Amino acid sequence: xxxxxxxxxxxxxxxxxxxxxxxxxxxxxxxxxxxxxxxxxxxxxxxxxxxxxxxxxxxxxxxxxxxxxxxxxxxxxxxxxxxxxxx
Length: 87
Known about the structure:
With 87 residues, this protein is mainly alpha-helical. The protein has helices spanning 3-36, 42-77. It contains 2 helices and no strands.
């Protein structure tokens, strides 16, 4: 594995882990509300959680793709720019 690939893998892995931790906490809270207060069956609440998580992951993936694309464009644009020049 090349160093660039390793760096990209670590960044994507860290993003995904943070997303999963946040979504897990949100899902646990929503399931608690659905089962205890809305009195829904566990099967229906599980299906709702799967839908919510899927939509959130799709949004997360699109945002990360945009961020990576902008970062790559910025790198290509500033590839030959001298960091010590005052232009």
